[in-house]
Design brief:
By secondary structure, the protein is an all-alpha fold. The protein has 6 helices and no strands. α2 runs parallel beside α4.
């Protein structure tokens, strides 16, 4: 059954890269700057990297649930990047780090609670999104402003 499912989903492997390209295109259209678009995408890459490293370290292959959750990690990570880059570009102090922190915590609590689920699918979904966003938040709050200032 697993082999049949893997074969059936083989064509879906391009969805995550497509999500990344579409997200980057949207960021470029929003900022009209390749540099700012790429900077806003950094938290998404941080979250994606954290999930992939966790999966690799735990010896678990990326399954259907993880592949389903990764676009959510990418897009929410990019949202965090949009907030920070917009604030830095406008040279305003609107409280982006606190907004991202509170928003991120509420998202982590809402979807992260699924880690406690006994059903393996719900557990995997919660774990994947939790790891990804738990990495994207500090990347956007701590690392991204330093990268932005390196002009």
């Amino acid at each position: 059954m697993e082999a049949a499912l893997s074969q059936a989903l083989a064509g879906e492997k391009m969805l995550l890269p497509a999500c990344g390209v579409i997200c980057l295109l949207a960021l470029f259209l929003a900022f009209r700057s390749l540099r700012q678009a790429l900077l806003a995408f950094i938290p998404a890459l941080g979250g994606l990297t954290a999930v992939l490293v966790f999966q690799l370290a735990s010896g678990r292959p990326l399954g259907l649930v993880e592949m389903t959750a990764l676009p959510l990690v990418v897009c929410l990570g990019a949202d965090y990047g949009i907030v920070v880059v917009s604030e830095l570009a406008d040279r305003a102090d609107l409280g982006a780090p606190m907004a991202i922190f509170v928003s991120g915590l509420s998202t982590l609590a809402g979807i992260g609670i699924l880690i406690l689920a006994s059903h393996p699918v719900l557990h995997a979904l919660g774990r994947t999104v939790f790891i990804g966003l738990a990495a994207a938040m500090p990347v956007s709050i701590l690392f991204l402003p330093k990268m932005y200032c390196r002009q």
